[in-house]
Every structure is written in structure tokens, then in C-alpha cells.
Amino acid sequence: MKPLIKRTKDMSGEQVLAAQRENLARLMIYNREEIDDLAIFAQDINTSKARFRSPQYGRSTLAMDGVRGNQVPLYVIYGGYDAPAYPELDARRDVFEDIRSDMKFELIPSAGHWLQYEAADLFNSACIEWTTRNA
Fold it and tell me: pTM of the prediction?
């Protein structure tokens, strides 16, 4: 994954939005054509109001400890081009399977990290089906 563009105080509003667009392409959304004004607006709000840096949590055991500590049905969905996980998606699946062999793991092809936005119809229908089956 390419490093993200840092926003600086001397950037114009237009430059900040251009940086957000590029950062979405590098980190969140695989298909650049899916990056619209709403995605850029949401990313700008999310990053400007973030209270902490999330990469440190992605590298920790915090999420896996939570998965290990419960018995609710587990459904893990990744975009096939999830930038933080790519290209080790099989390894991610293996980690989940080692902890919870009863979980369901699915890849949504041609989607990135923010697959809920990029592939909303697929994501929503998969979640509705999973929730209905496991209610």
C-alpha cells in the first residue's frame, strides 16, 4: 500500500479534497470510479474528527481477543483488494479460522477496505441473509 498523503495547514480546501480522494484510492476503495463526492466528504469528516490513529489497533491482538472471547455467530467479510490486508487475505482467513472454526469468511471480489461503501448492495444483502439465518 502506498503511504497516505498527509494533510497540512497550508493546503487549500481543494488540495485537501484531492488528497482525500487519493487516500481513498490508496486505502479504502479499490475501484477509483466508485470514489464520489460523498465518499470524499465522509472521509474528510472521518479523518478530521478521528480521536486516535487506527493502524496501531489493526496490528494489535485487540480484535482477535474480542473474537476469541465470544460465542455469537461470526461472519467476516473482506474486500478482495482490502489494502491493509492485501495480498495476505488467505492468512487473515486462517487467523480467524484458528480462533473460530465455526465462522464464515467471505471475500467480495473487486472491492477494497471500505466495501460497505464500494459494494453496498452486495454487502447489505450478505449481511441481511446472514442475520436472518442466524437470528
Answer: 0.86
pLDDT of 71-102, one tens digit each? 899 999 999 999 989 999 999 999 999 999 99
pLDDT by residue (tens digit) across 2-23? 899 999 999 999 999 999 999 9
What residues does each domain of the chain span? 13-49, 61-134
DSSP per-residue string spanning the chain: -PPPPPP-TTS-HHHHHHHHHHHIIIII-SSGGG--HHHHHHHHHHHHH-SS-SHHHHTSSHHHHHHHT--S--EEEEETT-TTTTT-HHHHHHHHHHH-TT-EEEEETT--TTHHHHTHHHHHHHHHHHHHHH-
